[in-house]
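Work Package 3 committed the consortium to producing structural models of liganded targets before the mid-term review. Because experimental data for this complex are still outstanding, the team generated a predictive model from sequence and the ligand definition alone, so that downstream docking and mutagenesis planning could proceed in parallel. The input record is reproduced below exactly as it was submitted to the modelling pipeline, together with the SMILES string for NAP.
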Amino acid sequence: MKALVTGSNGFIGSALVERLLKNGIEVNCLVRRTSDLTYLQNLPVKLSYADLRDASTLRAVVEDIDMVYHLAGVTKARNREAYLQGNYVSTLNLLQACDQYSAADLKFVFVSSLAAAGPSSADKPLKETDAANPISVYGESKLRAEEAVVQYAKHHFASIIRPPVVYGPRDRDVFVYFKSVQKGLILLLGKGTQPVSLVHVDDLVEGILLASTTVANGKIYYISGDGTYNWQIIGRSIAAALAKKPLTLRVPLWLLKLTAFMSVSAAKLANKPALLNWDKVAEMKQAAWLCSNERAKKELGYKPQIDLSTGIQRTAAWYKSMGWL
Ligand SMILES: NC(=O)c1ccc[n+]([C@@H]2O[C@H](COP(=O)([O-])OP(=O)(O)OC[C@H]3O[C@@H](n4cnc5c(N)ncnc54)[C@H](OP(=O)(O)O)[C@@H]3O)[C@@H](O)[C@H]2O)c1
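The resulting structure, written out as tokens with the ligand in place, is given here.
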């Protein structure tokens, strides 16, 4: 069995690569000439160089492959065009290459996002059968990519995974909260009680593997941990793991918008994607981001293993061991 992993050098991709290798799968890692390969160093993988935005680079990387795990994508981009190129066009290019140059029984798993579906109400987690209503350009670009996968799945094996917020070793987004708690602050937007779903990267990897072994026909699965959290609960859990007694600081929306304005302006000058942009502000303002993992449990046999406290402790230990905290 030979797998191609896109986004292989990233946070989730590198965890998936390690797991596939443990399972005895041969792994080809799609990377760019500019990719940071730190997490793939010393792993027995083959590097396949390509840029998903350039269809002409993809033939050689998809030939002779049994499974494609498509995780590459952009969660932060400079503008709408860059989100569409990084998530939608890239996915379309890869699907077309697989359609033309891979074996007919290739298995394709696409890692999308809860953002493709949009926010939920505070008391009702989204199900895969609920209508999608993305409120960010990121979410819209992921939804368009999903639609391309659904088309492809009319003639091939393909499934779609929608994770909520993912945390764990190597993550740099939730890490911001770890860093602020380490400095003595739990930062909350408004009351900080916006309910969210969350998944540890190891549980997500398990869900991705399950989705690649069950016949799917373009089906969508939410791969989430059990339970409902909010950033206050997550902050307290991080504080417990770091043995800190932080102060809680509530950030009003106007201050968040001001910070986003400064972040976007500075990023424009530096010609880089902003860490906090209007898309992220739109996502943070929503009532809730909840999804149900019931379909994944029923149809894939998915069973999350890592509760919040264990996951946060393991993640904090990793950040400390790497000198990030
Ligand atoms: N982290 C989360 O909380 C979360 C939640 C829901 C969904 N997701 C989705 O999960 C996937 C993986 O996320 P992550 O957190 O692991 O992201 P990450 O660490 O930022 O990794 C993104 C990966 O995509 C690659 N990539 C981007 N554009 C590419 C292109 N044009 N050609 C080839 N490779 C390209 C990057 O390569 P370079 O290193 O060369 O840039 C990198 O390997 C993404 O699709 C993301 O949307 C993540």
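Reviewers should note the following from the model. The longest strand covers residues 26-31. These observations will guide the Year 2 experiments.
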